[in-house]
Predict the structure.
Amino acid sequence: MRLGEETFELDLMAKALRTISKEISYEGLAEALLEAALDYSGAARGAVLLSEGGELVAKADASFPRERARILVSRPPLDEFRVPHELDERVLTRQEMVLSRGGSRDFLLADSAERQARLEVVFLCLPLVHQHRTVGVLHLEAEAEPEIFTPKCLAAMSLLASQAAVSFESAQLFEALRETNMWMIRGQRIGRMGSYRWNTRTLLSRASRECYRILDIDPDINPVPFEVFEDRVHPDDLPDLAQALAEAVSARAPFSREYRVVHRDGKTLNVVAVGEFDVGPSGDIELEGIITDVTERKNAEQALTDARVELARAARLASLGELAGSIIHEVSQPLTGIVASAEACLRWLARDPVGVADARKSATRIIELGHRATAVVCGLRSLAREGQLRFADVRLHEAVDEILLLLKGELERASITVKTDFDQSMPPIEADRVQLQQVVLNLARNAIEAMADVAGRPRALAIASRLLDGEVHLAFADTGVGIDPSMGERLFDVLHTTKRGGLGLGLSICRKIISAHGGRLWAEQNADFGAKFTFAIPMRQSARRSESN
Amino acid sequence: MPSLGIVHVVDDDELVRESLGDLLRSLNYQVALYGSAADFLDSKRSEAPACLVVDVRLPGTSGLELQGYLARVNNKLPVILMTGFADVPMSVKGMKAGAIDFLTKPIRDQDLIDAVAAAIRVDKDQRRQMAEIGELQHRYGLLTPRERQVVALVASGLMNKQVASELSISEVTVKMHRGSAMRKLGAKSVARLARMAEILRLSR
């Protein structure tokens, strides 16, 4: 029944073509092609060899693994197969279909027994051509009688071959896709970084495998409902995260947030999520982004911070011990004086007649010593208070004048004349007034003490203010003994003192206060005699903060 | 009221040294104040009983160095050391070098009062001894060579007879020299003479 036979053949052909076109791997494609060709033609043996000469490799993607460059399937199975040499040129280069007859010794696919049978055979060798390149060959062998490679059969084989060649394209693309996907998965795993798309209308998310690992979500939950995600966020971080998300959604602004994720086994991860909004395939607004597990980095940072804190604490303790000696000395000096003077005072009062003048002197000295002890304590307090400055608008000149008023008596007793040269254009500056006055007091006192032994030249303290590059400079120049140039920066060290009964704290306190204002304090030797101490602080603390950011 | 003695106070802290001076003056000591070791060494000091109260930590020459210097020049002025730091090795060093006391600031006034009183007493004793030795040496200078020979032998424990045989003179002559020497030195007994000879030998 001719029609029936044709229907059968068409059916067979259609099935073969379907199979071939469905295949997405090279091996599967080669298998399907060989199967279909053998089925349809009735040939006894056959082979499909792909990527002859490495063509496929070069064409597809240079990163394809090389071992895939050559794929051979055959019936019966063989390890090695070569297109007969005499056919090379015609099949591979000129891309012709070749049908030829030969003796059994030419059986490429026959075993030795069959070869000895010396039967006549027919070869059909046709190129698999894709985009003008030969990407493989289909080789079939059959006994010469009966004639199976009819024109119709050859046409069918051609059709199969060209369909197979087209399927290579999809196989290639699929391979490339699979490869890329594997890269992504591996890359995300190595980088501890997962990608997600969150639909802002349905609140469902699709996410990569790594996202599931980071968020400890079962792989079969897909898409991921928002509640499942919420359930993993650390309860303390959830309100802020939800608010940040809501704000980002309403503003359509890029989203970036760090929060903690708690796994079901209690393990806590630090993650950073970033994302941007766009319209997803569904037409809804979606947040697309990446979640990165930064736990290890966080731990390392924490360890570093801990180490720094520990170091700073150790350093502070060391300098505390260093300070303690100085403090003991500074406090015990006035205490010694107070006790001795008070004892003396009582004795003067107990005399007959009462030593009123002496008692008054003793009492006066007690007060003076008390003030000195207070100054030491205040100095220590400002040292302890370091870092807790209260910034406000300060009229520098007023603040300096107040201190000069305070020192009036001391200055007069020491026969020191004060000259001020203030920049009258100076606006209020941002500073901690009390702390700044402490500095002014210390620097003025230093000047007074430096001039205590001066003879033969005027004792003068010149205080000058200037505005320079957004900084306020205040300089204290005296006509005292000056600075030993070898002293250098040690001048500002805690405990360092050149003064008789000196604190060794004053200048180090001054420098700490000025540093806390983001400024500098330095000392210079005057050209003629005496020293000049200058500090420079920024006009505005806000300017300084934005600069340092 | 007469002065109980002179207290030299060396402290670089003016208010502290004035306070200490004030206290000591109220106790009827005469007080001399100095800001540094050099100031003290430059000063003229009287022969009255005195002591030195000095801070260990001084600019320039330290209190311990001043103490060491005084010892080297055989100045026996009693020294009281003061310090703001209770430094054990330093105080051991100061006490070994003969300090009367080592006071830690803040100083308890009674400690200072006691220390100064003790120091002045030590100085008085020293001065009295020195005066006695000077007097004795003066009197010893009045003795004839023969009298000195007799005194030395008697003080070494020999009998008059033995001394006479040692010097090849008569026992009567020995008695005569001995009596003259004891009169000149003011020794009322042979035992006292022996003691004087001992002091003279040591101070020589």
Summary: The mean pLDDT of chain A is 80. The first strand of chain A starts at residue 45 and ends at 50. Chain A has four domains: 2-182, 192-293, 298-384, 390-549. Chain A touches chain B at residues 325, 328-329, 331-341, 343-345, 347-348, 355, 358, 361-362, 365, 368-369, 372, 500-501 (CB under 8 Å).
